[in-house]
Write a structure and sequence with these properties.
Elements (H helix, E strand, L loop, with lengths): L2 E5 L3 H13 L3 E5 L2 H10 L4 E5 L7 H7 L5 E5 L4 H10 L3 E4 L4 H14 L6 E4 L2 E4 L4 E4 L2 E3 L3 H12 L5 E2 H9 L8 H14 L5 E4 L3 E4 L2
Length: 215
Amino acid sequence: MATILIVEDEVSINDLIRRNLKLVGHTCISVFDGMEAVQELSRTEVDLVILDIMLPEMDGYEVFKRNEEIPTIFLTARSSLADKVKGLTLGADDYLVKPFEMLELLARVDAVLRRTKKAGKEFELGGVKIDFEGRKVFLHDSPVECTPKEFDLLEVLVNNRNIALSRDKLLELAWGYDYGGDSRTVDVHIQKLRRKLDLEGRIKTVYKLGYRLEV
């Protein structure tokens, strides 16, 4: 997992991001203004910066210019095309506009870390081992045949581990926004994953909501 610096002056948003990133296993450092961010980056090695643009003391653009070698996701209320183009032209890895869904931020964090080689290409839980690049799954070192959608669903659960996901959200993330099926499809695939991978005690049913992979 990665060490992530969160630079956000709104305490409630900073805390929400920190708690959710910690849930999926990252180490987080929170700061609340631009100058504090620059000071923290001068003494601490981090894998990713989540950086607000409108900050006290020094704006996010200036913070980034001083540390442009570090993978960065701009997080801001500025939604104009010009602002997005400026952020990405400077060299930021991604740009997310407030308000945002936490699951979208987690997905973008995972994507940036994968591109910058800071995210694990494999994941292990008990006797289960997942090779994300090869899209292969093993149980006690023996290969397990998973359908493409079973693998997609498993990957979503792993990337959002310890977070309760509704059936509709799982459909959206694993099947896509335009999927026309119903939520019972999720239940069927969850049961198959539990049985194939001996994950009955790990993939928990969340009452009246959906499922959570406990790690």
